[in-house]
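Justification of computing resources. Each target in the renewal requires a structure prediction run like the one illustrated here; the chain below, 390 residues long, is used simply to show the kind of job we budget for.
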Amino acid sequence: MAKSDSDKLAVTTRYQKHEMIMTPTSPNASRPSRALPPGVVTGDDYLALINACKEGGYALPAINVVGTDSVNAVLEAAARNKSDVIIQCSNGGARFYAGEGLADQHRARVLGAAAMAHHVHLLAKEYGICVILHTDHADRKLIPWVEGLLDLSEAEVAAGRPPLFSSHMLDLSAEPLEDNLAECARLLPRMASLGISLEIELGVTGGEEDGIGHDLEDHEDNAHLYTQPEDVLVAWNRLSPLGHVTIAASFGNVHGVYKPGNVQLRPEILLHSQEHVAEKTGLGPKPLALVFHGGSGSEKDKITAAVSYGVFKMNIDTDVQFAFANGIGQYVLENPKAFLHQIDPETDVPYKKIYDPRKWLRVGEKSIVDRLEEAFADLGSRGRSIAMKG
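Resulting structure tokens:
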């Protein structure tokens, strides 16, 4: 049913409240960088943070979390490095956050993601940095998950609070371009009315992320891993008038860690897309806000090049998972008896202080913090938080 004039006015008012105003001559126009209150950013504050990254020539790490341990480790690492950060969850991570004991997997995905978001909203400002909250890959079958979260964000906004998330991702890259964009165009106005951005994927990121992805084959040319600038322009022209869009354009990147030689990263593809859109639309240089998927294991020079071409967000999951597991694994190897016996069978010494979950979970958290030190340095975001100082 078509919206009445009053309905349209209500949507526009919320849109302008978040300063996400598009003009015919400059869709997705960036805002001047400024200091922001610490905490979760949405709407205009989200755009300001992206603009700060692009103007400053740096990017933020986006870390997939699965529980309070990984969330808190990310917040700690960001605060230690005086950097803003992106916290995100996949559908499986959200389900795990809610508890694998919940039988209704759809409800678990929605409630788990919401629980994570509430946790971050509550704590992020205490760490003194700005946080973008995001949901990762959602293909066609997971659209109800995103819609369920939009239902919850609408309730938050109606109560005078910010939406739960800064942005959501729709990954329909395995479908024909028109089908991909049609579904994005259906949901984007709803997101925009809440001050929520949309991340889309064009081309295919290799590997798998929680059951979503494309297998790599040896000796395959993997042409589908490289997004065409013409497709980026089509997507931009279709979606940018409807709301704020970020684009995960594939340039040979893969999820997970693969043996060298399977694919070649070609970040210059990102530059070609920026130049093509700028030329055809008359916008300024690097008009696109780009996303780098599959950042784990990537060469440092390719990361630097991608950031210089307008990437503001780089996803890191596999390396963080390994860091967490490796730290705990080493702790177990150093204290083997404590994980076999409550009391040493030879000395009668109790091991409670060693197997206490707070001990080894903390070791895992510290390992995540250490790995993210490297990420903040690689992306150039260390010491560049735009959060207001207390």
